[in-house]
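Amino acid chain
________________
===
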Amino acid sequence: MHNNDSFTRNACLYTNAGTNTGEDVIRNVHAELYNTAELNTSRTSVVQTWPSIEQGGVEEITWFLEVPKIVTVATRYQPIVRACYAYQTEAWRDIFIADRNWAERLPSLGLYSSTSPVSISFSWSGSYVPITGTSTNVKVTVTKDADGFIANAYNSPNSFGDRDTITNLTVWWGNPKSVDVTVSSEGDFDSCAVEGDTTRCVITDSNKLKLFNQKERSYNIFLSIKDMDDDGNYADTLKMYSTVYYKFCVYSNPLIINVQPQIQ
């Protein structure tokens, strides 16, 4: 290109939420063209926003740019698009509960984490959780799997908030029949509450929600499990759920624009 030339920068935003059976719409979508240096952006808005984009939906953006009127030396420009959106990950895992002397074959146990930039996993010591009435440590791990970065300004389309920080984390479960699952210690969680047959624990403290090494963080909760019949012959499955909310941001590759002075 030569000085005073104009051009367009096109970008497409789309969502493919895959097998996400929960929140399959991206919200508070914010796309921004930056690193424009001396490029003239007066004919366009460098920021574009949408309240939401449905699963499989596409939004196309066109930015109109002009190189400076006077270029005296060869110059390279590299404008970049940064797109951010609010999203959530949902996950669950079956936890097998049995009497400490139980010695039969383990049943098939399910697990799931929705397709998204962040995944959730559950772990505990041993192949199953024994019914003892003492504390059992269940660990919930949040991992950022995609390129880009996360932030905690979930409800704000125009700001990030704290980078590398999720907005909140919730775990919950319902008691299986004939077994009592209670929280013996909230561990890393801020609070737990019983709502009917469901126990729900949350973390909203941003200091706890910042991921280590911009990648992941684990949270412990301690459960006490008792056989309500006290017959010493019990086996069942507890399904534990978790949801994490966050803003996710991703960068485009730079558009390389080489400008040469126009020969008079």
Remarks:
- The first strand starts at residue 6 and ends at 14.
